[in-house]
Amino acid sequence: MAATLFYILATVMVIATILAITGRHPVHAIVYLVTSFFALAGIFYLLLAPLVAMFEVIIYAGAVMVLFMFVIMMLDLGHPERGGRPALGQWLPALLLGATVLATISYAAAGFAGDKLPAMLPGVKEFAVTLFSRYGVAIEVISLQLLFAVVGALYLGRRR
Amino acid sequence: MPKLIIDDIAVEAAEGVSVLEAAKSVGITIPHFCWHPALGRAGACRVCAVKLLDGPVKGIQMSCMLPAQEGMVVSTTDPEAVALRRQVIEWLMINHPHDCPVCDEGGECQLQDFTIACGHGTRRFVGPKRTHVNQELGPYISHEMNRCIQCYRCVRFYQEYAGGSDFGVMGSAGKVYYGRFESGQLESPFSGNLVDICPTGVFTDKTARFRARYWDYDMAPSVCPGCSVGCNITPVARYRELLKIVARRNDMVNGWFICDRGRFAPKGVNAPSRPRTSLVDGVKTGREEAMDALLRRLGEVAELYGEGSIAVVGSTRLSQEGATLLPLLAESISAGALSYGLSAAESRASSGAISMLTLENGASIADVENADCIAIYESDLREEGPMLLLAVRQAWRRGAPVLLVGENSPLEQVRGVGIEAVQLHYMEEAPLAIFERPVVIAGMRHGDPRVMAVLDRSGARVACLFPGPNGHGAALLCAEHGGIPLEEALAKGKVKGLVAVEADIPAELLAGVPFVASLDWRETAAVQAASVVIPTAAWVECDGTYVNFEGRAQRFSRVMKPGLPIKELDPACHPPRIHQGDPPGGDILPSWQVMIEMIRLAGEKVPDGPFSGSWANLTSLDPEGEGEVIRGRCRRDS
Amino acid sequence: MAGADVIPDPMEITLVIAKIGLVLLVILTLAAYLVFAERRILAWIQDRKGPNRVGPFGLLQPLADLIKLLTKEDFCPPAGDRWLFFLAPAMAAIPAIMTFAIVPFGAPVRIFGRDLPMQVADLHVGLLLFMALSSIAVYGVALGGWASNSKYALLGSLRGLAQLISYELSMGLSLVPTVMLARSFRLSDIVAAQEGGWFILYQPMAFAIFLVSILAECKRIPFDLPEAEGELVAGFHTEYSGMRFGLFFVGEYINILVLGGLAATFFLGGWQGPLLPGLLWFWGKVLAFAFLFIWIRGTLPRLRYDQLMHLGWKVLTPMALVNILATAWWLYLAGSSPL
Amino acid sequence: MRVIDDMTAILTGLWTTWKHILRRPVTIQYPEEKRIPSPRYRARIILTRDPDGGERCVACYLCSAACPVDCISMQAEEGEGGRRRAAWFRINFSRCIFCGFCAEACPTMAIQMTPDYEICRRDVMDLVFEKEDLLVEHCGKDPEYNFYRHAGIGVTQPRGEGEGEKPTVDVRGLMP
């Protein structure tokens, strides 16, 4: 049952991602990408990582892509979908990088093929404890960075 | 040329002009009733008061009585003048019956306009009003004396200008009465102008009584189709019905007035029997089918009786547009004869006149009015050109003798306008040579073409009264294209098919013709005899051009849409419950457009418009303008 | 794949499906009547009578509205993006309905010898799922407005986008203290944690922030800027007609019910309450929230856009952050079990 | 404290609306309950008669001229006794905007407006009212006025016998 679900979700994800890359209209591309995120979240859930699944949706689909869309809608980009297809030369670096990533993943997958996943993944509590004790400093540094960004945004947006 | 200042505007007035006219020339209208451009001043109404602030005269003055003088400073808005005008108009309104809602003058009434302009609103006088009994003035003019403001315009026109003797002024002071000395029809052939000239509703047009209001009228500049004088008129229509005709000013032709015949004579536009739909053998069809049938039958006639057995007949009431296309139509259907509807006598006299007239020796109405001797040759002006009679009277008032030459110039015609005239037998007897500006008015009905040559040599200006409103144009084209009288064509016995385009052919001439087709808007003998009838638009329903007796081409505009008048519609059809574009019977074209369609159907090359070639300069005539004189074309062309 | 390969009990599946069906029925009916109730209550507030013609007291009005919407022309602007235009209403309505899956709407009952929780899915990350779904609902507004290819719709959807992601932040932050108090993301745990006292007593500030934020999330007056009929015709759904408009509309009212239910769950003890059965308590609280929403709509005027952003970013978000800090300090000082 | 002021303002608003929830609605249930507008209300147009029972309308065309939407049309004709009257008179109520200019323009008080506002019809064409539909058997709002008694043209009475008129002038009399 879970395997069936996985294959369905994986197919959806791959197709949606391909469409997101090849789609010529930015808004359509975003919709495909969000679909892909959903499928990914489903796969995380199947992998007994519901927390990651939720964060995937909240942060990527719910925040990042929405901001993307906001910018696309705010700035009238005209009709980029009517532009010409990228030339072969422009495809090459992407193909090259894609092949490298694919090869790496294949190698890694082959290496881990025999390993068993742990029977129970850590829950929210364990996750939090690890995050805030072991990686506490890093988290604080990142959050400070975000705070700077917020203060900077407020500064830029202040009334003169 | 005195220079004066009116309401802070510097005006240079013509010599001898009144202050009122000087103000009018710069667009300042001073209220007035008794003053009229054609009748001059009387000083009777007292509403044209202005105040002179500086100059040779000072204080309140009547502007119509006061000649414009150098250095005058005139104020029309001075409080004193305004107050006087308001008081005067209040006096004039004291006895007014206040019946504007039922008065036909309402909306086009000078008294209404100037009462408002002078600032009089509410009647303050509480005493009783003076009343009068009305007179029965015949079928054309209705009389309502209670509305009178005693401006004397009617009497001045009727007795002085038009020479009538049966109408005048009676009584004195508050009893002043304008009317006939006893009830009965007005005798003057120009009595209808009382309607136009009365500034209020004493005289109104009985034929259009209680029909419509000025703001609802369909109006357009037009030309009278009554005779060859070509008086400028404004036909008034409402609900696709011609209601009445009003004179339109054109100083080169009729001035301010028109005759009763042009104003009241039935024009046939509203006639219920008027052809409104195309007929083939008495069966209603569409216009296209009727034209197809007409061409087919003409082909059959030509096949049966041989080439040249068809005659195309026009008339002198066909507009110049139609008349110029007539030869093209004749050519396209291979007609053997072309006629312009002139009788044999008319044809001879007209061709003589055409070859004699030049730009120099033709007389206009203004020439008649300024003549110092007038000879009327073989003509009854009451029939052939009534407005010339009025012009003759103006010349006679200035001292010009009037000679009536020939048997067909009855003495009665001049009696109606109060002229004394001398009768002669022959043109040669007239001592024209001793006068400086003699004018001969020659009738074409009984005229002798040989006399035309005599006139040409006499040095007098000549006014040739062609038959019909476009007689001059028809005669010009007749000479150009070799038209012949229909009698002659029929006499040869070859004509077996007739195409009558607005032609008034006597029934006896039609009797022997096997095939007759008619394009007309009147129910003529030709329409009754025709097996194919195509209705055309009447003169008020289309644009067109008439060439008047002196050779002045004048454009008339469409007054109303063609179609059955609402009055004649079945009550069930009005208001229309289904909305449609054309009213019933509205699908008709002017005759010249029907002719172009037929030329196209016959497979000939279609001209761009009615006027091409040497006539092209007529295309741009302005209906509001004075017209263009095209007299003497033949001499110039040859 | 390892993990969840357990064959579920068919009985359980049947019950779950039955629960889903029941909840769906109740929610849709309630949403329909919420529309009617809003029209009547607004009318009363404005001294009018409201719809009272269809059926007794106008009670069949929702049916009449449904028939009208169903029979109207389904129109897409010629220059619009057809595909997204038709997708958007569903993206607005479905997350709202899905969210209700995690809301516990009554005390667990024993049926067929087993404990049956009155909740469709008792996820242990339930609160996060709510956050995830509410962030997805943004797409409905954004895509609907953009796909209409109309200036009013586009402006409405831009406003909607900015408003929804802004207030989602303060909403999420205001919920952190409840999680800290309940020590779980699981909604049934949160309800259970309030047995001794409703969280509104401990967290009035968080409740206030949450209440304002859900008003904004529902796009209700005084935060209805994405629709703003006085300025933008009908905002992001200007170009919609018929049942697609109906979907937007129903989605909005389901959202009211769901957010009311969540507010009850997070701060008012969920289905808990004395004397009366849990189901009644829960639905009573939900309807009380719904009434509050309508009442506020009948009272307050619409904010200006800068006021809206000011309130969200400069008032609610800092307040929520301060509240989290304060709660953390309090919990730290009070020890492991403050309640 | 601004916050407290703001809160009070919001709560006051909520309290006000709460009070109105409990108040009786002012709505009138139209087809069941009807209001009677004031006599000056501008609705369905009628053509009234004078006190003697004659048609007041003299078809002077002033109402059709005053009408800003051109919904009035008529044709005048001469009736019995020299009375001017309308051969047909038509008001297209589907166009009428009930501005009342026609009634204001009417010099004979013939055209008047009534408080009858229920003039809906199933068919638009039924909103075209003819003279028969417009003419009523009473004087409307001006019970005494009779135009022809004042207009000195001798239609309802011999000339010189109307209100405020001297006997007719004898033109042939010699007295000044």
- H and E order of chain A: HHHHHH
Radius of gyration computed on alpha carbons of chain C = 21 Å
SSE series of chain C: HHHEEHHHHHHHHH
How many domain regions of chain A? 2
CATH topology of the largest domain in chain A: Four Helix Bundle (Hemerythrin (Met), subunit A)
Defining key terms:
heterotetramer; A: 160 residues; mainly alpha; Four Helix Bundle (Hemerythrin (Met), subunit A); 6 helices; 0% strand; globular; B: 638 residues; alpha/beta; Ubiquitin-like (UB roll); Rossmann fold; 7-stranded mixed β-sheet; 5-stranded mixed β-sheet; 20 helices; 29 strands
Write structural notes for this entry.
The complex is a heterotetramer of chains A (160), B (638), C (339) and D (176). Chain A has two domains: 2-120, NADH-ubiquinone/plastoquinone oxidoreductase chain 6, subunit NuoJ (Four Helix Bundle (Hemerythrin (Met), subunit A), Up-down Bundle), CATH 1.20.120.1200; 122-160. Helices cover 78% and strands 0% of the residues of chain A. Chain A contains six helices and no strands. Chain A has helices at residues 2-22, 26-46, 50-74, 88-112, 124-134, 136-156. Chain B is α/β, with parallel strands linked by helices. Among the domains of chain B are: 3-92, Ubiquitin-like (UB roll) (Roll), CATH 3.10.20.740; 278-342 and 485-536 and 589-607, 3-Layer(aba) Sandwich (Rossmann fold); 346-472, Rossmann fold (3-Layer(aba) Sandwich), CATH 3.40.50. Helices cover 27% and strands 18% of the residues of chain B. In chain B, helix 14 (449-458) links the parallel strand 22 and strand 23. Chain C has helices at residues 10-45, 61-71, 82-99, 126-147, 151-182, 187-193, 199-202, 204-217, 229-232, 242-267, 278-297, 305-334; strands at residues 106-111, 114-118. Chain C is mostly helical and 339 residues long. A two-stranded antiparallel ribbon of chain C has the order 1-2. With 176 residues, chain D is an alpha+beta fold. Chain D has a domain at 45-155: 2-Layer Sandwich (Alpha-Beta Plaits), CATH 3.30.70. In chain D, strands 2-3-5 form a three-stranded antiparallel β-sheet. Chain D has a two-stranded antiparallel ribbon with strand order 1-4. The radius of gyration of chain D is 27 Å and the shape is elongated. The relative contact order of chain D is 0.17. The mean pLDDT of chain D is 89. The B-D interface holds B 97-102, 106-107, 126-134, 144, 146, 170-175, 177, 179, 209-213, 215-216, 239, 566-567, 575, 577 and D 58-62, 64-65, 75-78, 84, 90, 107-108, 125, 128, 147, 150-155, 159-160, 162, 164-173, 176. Strand 6 (129-131) of chain B pairs parallel with strand 6 (165-168) of chain D.
